[in-house]
Amino acid sequence: MPQVSQPDGRPEEPPDTVSTATTRPGGTGPASCSGPGPGSSSSSSSTLGDGGPVAADPDARHRLTALQGLAALSLDAMASVAYGPESIVLVLAAAGGYGLGFTLPVTLAIAALLAVLVASYRQVIAAFPNGGGSYAVARTHLGRRTALFAAASLVLDYVLNVAVSVTAGVAALTSAFPALYDDRTAICLAVLVLLTALNLRGIVDTAKAFLVPTAVFVGAILTVIAAGLLRSAPAATTSAAGHASVLADNATAVGALLLLKAFAAGCSALTGVEAVANAVPSFRAPAARRAQRTEVALGVLLGVMLIGLSVLIGRFHLQPVAGVTVLAQLADASLGHNAAFYVVQFATMVLLALAANTSFGGLPVLMGLLARDNHLPHVFGLKADRQVHRHGVLALAAVAAALLLFSGGDTNTLVPLFAIGVFAGFTVCQTGMVRHWRRERSPRWRAKALLNGAGALLTGVSAVVVTATKFTEGAWLIVVALPLLVLAFEAVHRAYARIGARLGLGRLPEPPRRARSLVVVPVSHLSRLTCEALNAAVSLGDEVVAVTVTHDTPEDRPATEALRRDWELWDPGVDLLELPSPTRSLGRPVAAYVNKLATRRPGSRITVLIPEAEPAHLWQRLLQNQRGAVVAHAVRRDTDAAICRLRFRLTAPVSAR
Question: What angle do helix axes 627-638 and 587-600 make, rounded to 10 degrees?
């Protein structure tokens, strides 16, 4: 057969290769028809290419401005200042007080890497304005398998980010209110439910809701830094009083390995830097330019906060203690144990919890891209109103809830799992961009390739170090999960390939031909529903037969005889065939009869039309016996017949005046 030419772009909605739906006008309402045979409907849609923006975008109000993008997609990175410096301090504490003196140099190295990543992802945004981040880069320049590895690392990163952010936010809350510590898992789940509900309303509404908390958090952290720089001694140490220090008694030497471990641990503060590049299509036109501005603003704010907090750690000679976060101690030292301290803690708690929203903004878009490439079920590529990938949001929430229950709401249980996927994605993206510049050879391509190569080297070293040092603490789960996730993507892709081959996707089908149509109508009693079903059946088919399943038991015989008598009196011109059933089954006798018809009449098109009442109110569906669903399931499972479920709407009666 001749091949059908494919468009250069990708459809906004992926085609559904498994089912088809048809709407029939008429007084009885819509009739949805489906069949398991080799027929399928496909929908065409417009494609947004890599060029300029489309004028008068009707969905512009559901897309992000640069400021809204900062609130919706950057909270993960900005909120990580609450646990990034703490991760560094906890590693360096193994070397005692002398080791803590290296907090600032390690943080400066992380800030340098942050600058490299921000510059790199600005280039990724310009080169791949349709989003996807490291997955899109790897798919173009490193091959499908590497792209799937990058996608798997991003998926794990986003899922873990939700769990880590929520638990870290609740940890900030319990640091200020220790009485809530035992209820942290329930609080985490409540926060997750709230975030899910907000994101189902759309990313723009979510961003608007988060603008104020974001501004309060950034203002609070900058206030802590400014006030701390003006002090020569801590204003208060109340929060750390009575808590045991985690400083090592037998201090180790500060060697290269310890510094590498501290660097790798502190790089958890860089998580979320890639989220803007993954979700470029969520921005208003010109989307790439707005996304680049958001990326730069994120880098500047994050760098200032990380360096400022690290300076304060050295200035106040802060030591990590059990049960109290480093940020809480810094707020205590800079502002005193007063109302301002609780404002900082509350703002930190809120933003850490909301930082999970970065995943809700980025992962559903990535899952949509994977669905379009047939690596995830196509349902993840569908968009609801307000440009929401609803199924991706719900799937992310479900997996994150399982992780929260697994960890018991403890941040330290999840952080070792967190960084590996992040660094793997960074490294793949940077490596792919090196190949991109070598192929493009645009102006200053050597400098750009050198920048990306340096970033790939640094993040690759961090990935190896954090995997080796955290392997026995749970990081082995990610090492196992990454290839398993890639294998799952491959399995889905093979399944879609088999379905596509069966359906003949990409090829011109044979011309349609008319076959004799036979419609089978299951009935159980006489009513307006039966009449409407036969009206539809005689309109659809050349031949119509009504069937009823009978049971030879004393309790069922009166109903069978009444239906036989009433049918003869009504005489609709359609034969009623009784299908005796020795069991209480409804669907199997109908399916067996349809198979006999298909054997006797191989050239006929058989349709089973199942009439069903559509109640006026949703709650009234609980009153239905679901006979139609039982018959439809049996026919779909055991036959090749088409199924048409006719909905008869039960409208409320008009009251007399």
Answer: 40
Q: Compute the radius of gyration of the chain from its Cα atoms.
A: 31
Q: Which residue from 279, 278, 297, 286 is spatially nearest to 60, judged by alpha carbons?
A: 286
First to last CA, the chain: 66
Q: In b/e form, how buried is each residue of 498-507, taking b as 16+ CB within 10 angstroms?
A: eebeebebee
Q: How far apart are CA 352 and CA 344, in angstroms?
A: 12
Whole-number pLDDT of residue 520: 92
The pLDDT of residue 7 is 37
Cis peptide before 234 (omega within 30 of 0): no
Q: pTM score, two decimals?
A: 0.66
- Give the separation between CA 353 and CA 210, rounded to whole angstroms: 11
Rounded CA-CA distance 516/652 in Å is: 39
Contacts of 181 (CB under 8 A, 6+ apart): 174
User: What per-residue confidence (pLDDT) applies to 186?
Assistant: 86
Angle 495-497-500 (CA atoms, 0-180°, nearest 5)? Answer: 110
Higher pLDDT, 25 or 555: 555
Rounded CA-CA distance 141/136 in Å is: 9
- Range 487-490, long-range pairs (CB < 8 A, 24+ positions): 489/148, 489/151, 489/152, 489/370, 489/375, 489/376, 490/148, 490/375
The per-residue pLDDT for range 359-391, each reduced to its tens digit, is: 777 788 788 888 888 888 888 877 665 556 678
Strands 605-614 and 517-522: parallel
| Cα separation, 341 vs 176, whole angstroms | 9
Cα 368 from Cα 376, distance rounded (Å): 8
pLDDT tens-digit series, residues 555-590: 888 888 889 999 999 988 898 999 988 887 888 899
Nearest alpha-carbon partner for 648 in 29, 32, 34, 33: 29
DSSP assigned state of 60: G
pLDDT digits 0-9 by tens, 129-162: 877 778 888 888 888 888 898 888 888 888 887 8
8 A C-beta contact, residue 50 and residue 140: no
How far is it, in rounded angstroms, from Cα 294 to Cα 122? 10
Residue 142's identity, in one-letter code, is: L
Residue 347 CA to residue 325 CA, distance in Å, equals: 14
H helical segments located in 504-586: 528-540, 557-570
The region of weakest confidence among 132-136, 208-212, 468-472, 513-517 is: 468-472
What DSSP character marks residue 213?
H
DSSP state of 541: -
